[in-house]
Amino acid sequence: MLQKDDTVLVLIDIQGKLAEIVDNSEFVIGNIAKMTQGVQLLGLPILWLEQYPKGLGKTVEAIAQHLTDQQPIEKITYSAYDTPEFVEKLEATGRKKVLLAGIETHICVYQTAAHLLQNGYEVEVLADCVSSRTAKNNEIGLQKIVQIGAKVTSVEMALFEMLQIAKGDTFKAISKLVK
Description:
Blueprint: E1 7-12, H1 16-21, H2 25-42, E2 46-51, H3 53-56, H4 61-64, E3 73-75, H5 84-93, E4 97-103, H6 105-118, E5 122-131, H7 135-147, E6 151-153, H8 155-163, H9 169-178
Parallel strand pairs: 1-2, 1-4, 2-3, 4-5, 5-6
Helix pairs in contact: 2-8, 2-9, 6-7, 8-9
């Protein structure tokens, strides 16, 4: 099970026009925004990536507005793990469980998951926080991610799994966020 003390959220390339044209765009962006807020309530670190922002644009405002205390890691590689700054910041967290969210499922999310697994991390992909330009590519990406050994979860499942108890201010705030 996910534990809030050993998990990190990684946000991959939720940028510009691409974020607006992926399958089920509004749903996915809304869920990523909820997840970002939820993990902040739980005190998890967030690593935030942007693929070539000069060309693809910045992270969509619905998500970026919740990340005002940090800057994105710029990358040009499909796998975040091929970007040294990402690896350095991930290792600095000291956490071995990685929650992945972002686009596109069959390219950057898949390749990042594969490299994380190869390097000893446990990976869970937030199925309601990933997408591709087509539903079929999203589906194939998720299938392949599972085939290589990652797990699939959802916003509510992950947040309540890490919360572990149905009482207190954090419980109330997370419940309000996801309902």
